[in-house]
From TrEMBL, chain A:
Domain of life (superkingdom): Bacteria
Keyword tags: Cell membrane, Membrane, Transmembrane, Transmembrane helix, Transport
Region (Disordered): 1-25
Protein name, per record: ABC transporter permease
TM spans (from-to): 39-62, 120-143, 155-175, 181-200, 239-261, 281-306
Gene Ontology terms describing biological process: transmembrane transport
Annotated organism of origin: Kineosporia babensis
Membrane topology value: Multi-pass membrane protein
Main subcellular location: membrane
One Pfam match: BPD_transp_1
CC terms in the record's Gene Ontology section: plasma membrane
InterPro entries: BP-dependent_transpt_permease, MetI-like, MetI-like_sf, OppC_N
Location relative to the cell: Cell membrane
TrEMBL record, chain B:
Domain ABC transporter: residue ranges: 5-251
Sections of the chain in a coiled coil: none
GO MF term list: ATP binding; ATP hydrolysis activity
Protein name: ABC transporter ATP-binding protein
Membrane topology: Peripheral membrane protein
Keyword Cell membrane (UniProt): yes
Automatic annotation (TrEMBL), chain C:
The entry's keywords: Cell membrane, Membrane, Transmembrane, Transmembrane helix, Transport
Name this protein carries in UniProt: ABC transporter permease
InterPro entries recorded: BPD_transp_1_N, MetI-like, MetI-like_sf
ABC transmembrane type-1 domain location: 107-316
GO CC, alphabetical: plasma membrane
Chain ranges passing through the membrane: 12-30, 109-131, 143-167, 187-206, 247-273, 293-316
UniProt source species: Kineosporia babensis
Cross-referenced PROSITE patterns: ABC_TM1
Length: 320, 271, 329
């Protein structure tokens, strides 16, 4: 089945033909320059940077804030009220910067800081693995065509027809909980790579027809040289955009799976899991879900904005 | 020959950029005006300006006298009544210019029905079939229910021409009607346009970058460059004695005549 | 056309078979001892042996898989004398219920959640998208773009908690949800579903808004729209026939696929709102490790997705004349 091309049709004679030079993909520094001129993108970049620093320096930060992610502070909760944090706003104070967990009294700030570790580690590893699989299989299918293409395409179709979320949950629930983080990455990647591979495949197929690739083949370049020096560099911007847009998806997936109890195993903190445990408290201690929820939503938002801006910068036509 | 359409100081601008710069020309009743220029010369914008279909942000100035009516003074509904009825247009790429979701019959009938009040669906379809027959589409009665993708490039352009002539317009504007087609089909389409013009007495504006194309059909010619008319005159004059160096360059660049420029000139002279 | 349908159905059956095999293998190979898993936390050795025997867990993998498959089509009888009519998805020892029954009982509620959400997100998405396309670059467009970004970034469980807190606890404009049948109290019933519908719909609505906007803007730039204008067609006809139909057709088909895949989203929404549908069943079974149920829901979800894709493909060949049935992609 064919999806009708909804790509922008550039009329033969467009009014702004004078600046047609702008339609060639700009160099990477100008992408960066465009990003830096844009306050929203800058804010997102800043937020992502902050979370990354938080994740990297988690042990140090926790030392400064005074409470570790696994320490119970019984003095911060009210045992007579079922463990509600003492003080307003979920127990936010100089002692506990973002309040404490109801019931246990664990420091939310420390758990957020450590939770960033799991979120980012899993999302970024999954992105890395997905990109690797997607680029390799997409290139193979697109460049070699024929039977290789057929086999890879069938596998991709199969995986994309799968109810991925439910299956991930099913598999993860059946698997032993010991190495959940690795399993999460693996399972997410297995179902994620076809989406990148499909696009890489299509672009490789059209690049293969282009003069410069044919010239390289004609001049006797080996397949490996052609793939790595002629085709791959031309896929750079596509891959960059796809990868940036994949990160927020995987952050959400990890959090969702942890929320459903098949993700990161307690007591290791994760934002999704924190939100899951806040479900029974939301009416009494709203900060308990608001804090991790806000951190999570902002992180997803930031990556999405950055992905959009990068796409707009490398592809001014605005095609998705 | 009296003039059907007279453009006087016509300009089109997008913001500060003037893509058509105070050009003037006339189209004789039943005659053919060729507008020649490279892409970016402003020739397509000229045609869209006549139709009142400039892209967003485009501004039109000057005068367009169509059979005594000042087109630039018409309101949008008034202009709509002219469009497709008295002035019809044939575009460059027939595939993308036809809507893939509707049969060609529906699309031809649509033009017909929107300008003839109280026409039944059936009568409009009959008109579509007749129009298709006039452009020599075989088995028009059957093909009227086919979709654009089921036609070849040349046949699609015939459909576009059928659509244009279905309302018996006084002026047909053909914007690069042969550019997207195979070389062998190009001649047929040009012939068809000439035939339609003979039969209906409509005037024709033929817009092209290809001097060889206009040489066959145009009476009058204007050569455009950077939004300005650089040369104007009868086709004969221009082919035998180009005044402007740009026209000379265009003549020299005609790729398909590989014998000699001299031969091209004589061909042009006969048209 | 017939050949196309036959091919698609054959492909669909193959995918479903592979999903079954894959799922079964995962549960067979990865669970250290399915009997222990199925038995749950409070288990005795006798009970484990009984489960093993009743489920035929002592048989080799292929025999077990065959029994499962034939149970799907012909029904089967478990060792303990439990009759399971086709389509038999298994038997949950933890609850002593047939998986098929458990799912069928809860399917109507899930259908209500899914259909309401789909209606809502299509309405919001198409209207929002049209509005931003018409107002391209203006304030409304930018405002909607901001909303869609937000809608796409907030995970639906966070949104669920936030909306519930704001509308139920804080503003008290919506009542706490109580399970009431539609016939008893239609108003309460409807109010119950407002939040679940919204939560499930908002993420989709956001992406549909973007899609509609992009499609409409692209279509308006198509040459055939210019042709339609050049014919002197009335603007409303230009919009209706030449802009909306090509722009919205792909959206309708994508909606079909998304609807078929809704069970995943229902899982979270139903859990948060305590709606006793198939999604909550799956979520509860994950917590209890009730594997036959998890597997049953997985297969059901796969069935929906695969059938949904096929229906959409067939539909597409009807509404888009270029996709002639049987033509290769």
């Amino acid at each position: 089945m064919t999806i009708p091309s909804t790509g922008l049709q550039v009329p033969a004679e467009s009014p702004n033909e004078g600046d047609s030079a702008g339609t060639t993909p700009p160099a990477r520094w100008s992408v960066l320059r465009n990003l830096l001129r844009d306050w929203a993108a800058l804010a997102c970049l800043g937020y992502v940077g902050l979370i990354v620093l938080m994740a990297v320096f988690a042990p140090l930060i926790v030392k400064v804030s005074g409470w570790g992610p696994y320490e119970f502070d019984q003095s911060a909760i009210d045992p007579n009220m079922g463990g509600i944090p003492l003080g307003s706003w979920g127990g936010i104070s100089g002692e506990h910067w973002l309040g404490v967990e109801p019931g246990s009294g664990r420091d939310i700030f420390a758990r957020i800081v450590y939770g960033a570790r799991s979120s980012l580690l899993i999302a970024l590893s999954a992105t890395l693995l997905t990109s690797l699989l997607g680029v390799v299989f997409g290139l193979l299918a697109g460049y070699f065509g024929g039977r290789t293409d057929m086999v890879i395409s069938r596998v991709m179709e199969f995986l994309m027809a799968f109810p991925a979320l439910i299956f991930m949950i099913a598999v993860l629930s059946a698997l032993p909980a010991d190495d959940r983080a690795y399993l999460l990455v693996l399972v997410i990647s297995v179902f994620g790579w076809p989406y990148l591979a499909r696009i890489v495949r299509g672009q490789t197929m059209s690049l293969k027809q282009r003069e410069f690739v044919e010239a390289a083949v004609a001049s006797g370049a080996s397949r490996r040289t052609v793939v790595f020096t002629e085709i791959l560099p031309n896929l750079r911007s596509t891959i960059l955009v796809m990868v940036t847009l994949a990160v927020p998806g995987y952050i959400g997936t990890e959090a969702g799976l942890s929320f459903l109890g098949v993700g990161v195993v307690p007591p290791t903190p994760s934002w999704g899991q924190m939100i899951a445990s806040s479900v029974s408290w939301y009416a009494v201690v709203p900060t308990y879900f608001l804090v991790p929820g806000t951190f999570l939503a902002l992180l997803v938002l930031s990556f999405m904005v950055l992905g959009d801006r990068i796409r707009a910068a490398v592809d001014p036509g605005g095609r998705s | 020959m009296s003039q059907l359409l007279k453009a006087n100081g016509l300009s089109v601008s997008f913001g500060a950029a003037k893509v058509v710069d105070e050009i003037s020309f006339g189209v004789p009743r039943g005659g053919t005006l060729g507008i020649v220029g490279e892409s970016g010369s402003g020739k397509s914008m000229t045609s869209l300006a006549i139709m009142g279909l400039l892209p967003k942000g485009g501004k039109r100035e000057g005068s367009l006298d169509f059979d005594g009516t000042e087109l630039t003074a018409l309101s949008e509904p008034q202009m709509r009544a002219v469009r497709g009825d008295r002035i019809a247009m044939v575009f460059q790429d027939p595939l993308s210019s036809l809507n893939p979701y509707y049969t060609v019959g529906t699309q031809i009938a649509e033009a017909y029905r929107s300008h003839r009040s109280g026409v039944s669906r059936k009568a409009a379809k009959q008109a579509a079939i007749e129009a298709m027959e006039r452009v020599h589409i075989r088995e028009a009665g059957r093909r009227v229910d086919d979709y654009p993708h089921q036609f070849s490039g040349g046949m699609r352009q015939r459909v576009m021409i059928a659509m244009a002539l279905s309302t018996d317009p006084e002026l047909i504007i053909a914007d690069e009607p042969t550019t997207a087609l195979d070389v062998t089909v190009q001649a047929q389409i040009l012939e068809l346009l000439a035939e339609v013009q003979r039969d209906t007495g409509a005037a024709l504006i033929l817009i092209t970058h290809d001097l060889a194309v206009v040489s066959e059909v145009a009476d009058e010619l204007i050569v455009m460059r950077h939004g300005k008319v650089v040369e104007t005159g009868s086709a004969e004059q221009i082919f035998s004695d180009p005044q402007h160096s740009y026209t000379q360059a265009l003549l020299d660049a005609v790729p398909r005549i590989d014998d000699s420029i001299g031969e091209l000139r004589t061909t042009g002279g006969k048209a | 056309m017939t050949r196309f349908v036959v091919n698609r159905v054959a492909g669909m059956l193959l995918v479903l078979f592979l999903v079954c095999l894959f799922t079964y293998m995962v549960f067979f190979l990865l669970s250290p001892d399915p009997a222990v898993q199925i038995c749950g936390k409070n288990c005795t050795p006798e009970r484990i042996d009984q489960i093993r025997e009743n489920l035929g867990l002592t048989d080799p993998f292929l025999t077990q898989f065959w029994n499962f498959l034939s149970g799907l089509f012909a029904g089967r009888t478990y060792g303990g004398g439990i009759e399971c009519a086709a389509p038999c998805l298994g038997y949950s020892f933890q609850t002593s219920q047939l998986v098929t029954d458990m799912i069928v009982q809860r399917l109507p509620v899930t259908a209500v959640v899914a259909i309401g959400a789909a209606v809502l997100w299509l309405l919001m998405g198409v209207i929002g998208g049209l509005l931003s396309a018409v107002q391209e670059g203006k304030f409304a467009d930018k405002f909607i773009a901001g909303l869609t970004l937000g809608g796409m970034s907030v995970p639906n469980y966070v949104l669920a908690l936030a909306l519930q807190y704001v509308f139920v606890v804080w503003l008290q404009v919506l009542p706490f949800s109580q399970a009431v049948p539609f016939a008893d109290d239609p108003v309460q019933w409807f109010l119950n579903f407002i939040l679940p519908w919204s939560v499930l719909a908002i993420g989709y609505a956001a992406s549909y808004t973007r899609l509609t906007r992009a499609n409409v803007i692209d279509t308006l730039n198509e040459n055939f729209v210019r042709t339609a204008k050049a014919k002197g067609l009335r603007p409303d006809l230009v919009w209706r026939r030449h802009a909306l139909r090509p722009a919205l057709t792909p959206i309708v088909t994508i909606a079909g696929m998304d609807f078929a895949g809704l069970l995943g989203g229902a899982l979270i929404t139903e859990t948060v709102f305590g709606i006793n549908g198939v999604g909550k069943l799956a979520a509860d079974s994950i917590t209890k490790n009730d594997q036959p149920v998890i597997m049953g829901v997985t297969l059901l979800a796969a069935f929906f997705v695969v059938v949904g894709n096929m229906v959409v493909d067939l539909l597409y060949s009807v509404i888009d004349p270029r996709v002639k049935a049987g033509a290769p992609a």
